[in-house]
Amino acid sequence: MSALLALPGRPAPAQAPVGTWLKIPAVEPAEIAAFAGFDFVVVDLEHAPLSVETAARMVTVAALAGVAPLVRVPDHGAATVQRVLDAGAHGVLVPHVDTVDEAAAVAGAARFPPRGRRGAGGTSRAGLWGMRPTAEYVAFGDEQALVVPQLESERAVAAAADILAVDGVDAVFVGAADLGLSAGLAPGDPALAQMVDHVLAAAARAGKPCGLAVGADARAGAAAAARGAGFVMLANDSTLLAHAAREIVREYRGAPSR
């Protein structure tokens, strides 16, 4: 995972790669995330009001700024997976994958025949607008475009080992917030932590990474990596802006007058 999230000319991170969600419909946060030192970004088409066109621009800017761009698609639709990969995304996170059949379907949407059913779009950005040799374009799609199912239900947790064994699945991501909602568990419930640990253990046995999101807490991110997370999501662009804005206003209100 570390090597696949490193762009050409940039070494793979020594520790678990760290990324952030991009939700603001603009290209500047992608560039800022790169300059801040994130290893990758995830353009969020599931929980943000972004169009595929805007996502494509964000992917382009992120890659040119030196940070690996992934996209979280809004559903299991093969058309969206294909479009964002042809736009240059280095992979997709796919929400609410609960079964082996669903995992195989989304993996197939990202792979070319005979492994999958993705159509050739070599005149897209992924094909350097027709200048990348077809074999190279296909090889990147088959070997380096990451497919990351999100496990967000008790059913998905129970099937974690089988989902990880699916050809074309490169990693999994535990959506702990949705998992807790699905199971009726509060964020700090030990039963929720046990389910996360179950997936982490399954991923370790499969030799594939499991990612975790920890909010805007760097220490929690480091703890997640120490716990076995193969990659970590910290905060998102809009929340980072919101927290910084609130903090500076609070400091202003509490500052002594001169």
Q: Can you tell me about this structure?
A:
- The chain has 258 residues and is α/β, with parallel strands linked by helices.
- Helix content is 45%, strand content 15%.
- The protein has an eight-stranded parallel beta barrel with strand order 1-2-3-4-5-6-7-8, surrounded by seven helices.
- Helix 1 runs parallel beside helix 2.
- The N and C termini lie far apart (53 Å).
Strand content: 5-15%
**Overall mean pLDDT score?**
93
**What's the helical proportion of residues?**
40-55%
Contiguous low-pLDDT stretches (5 residues minimum) are: none
Computed over alpha carbons, the radius of gyration is: 19 Å
Major beta sheet summary: 8 strands, parallel, barrel
The helix/strand order is: EHEHEHEHHEHHEHHEHEH
The number of helices is: 11
Shape: globular
Structure keywords:
258 residues; alpha/beta; 15% strand; globular
Secondary structure topology:
Blueprint: E1 18-22, H1 28-36, E2 40-44, H2 52-65, E3 68-72, H3 78-86, E4 91-94, H4 100-110, H5 134-143, E5 146-151, H6 154-158, H7 160-164, E6 172-174, H8 176-183, H9 190-206, E7 210-213, H10 218-227, E8 231-236, H11 237-254
Parallel strand pairs: 1-2, 1-8, 2-3, 3-4, 4-5, 5-6, 6-7, 7-8
Helix pairs in contact: 1-2, 3-4
Describe the structure in brief.
The protein is built from 11 helices and 8 strands. With 258 residues, the chain is an alpha/beta fold.
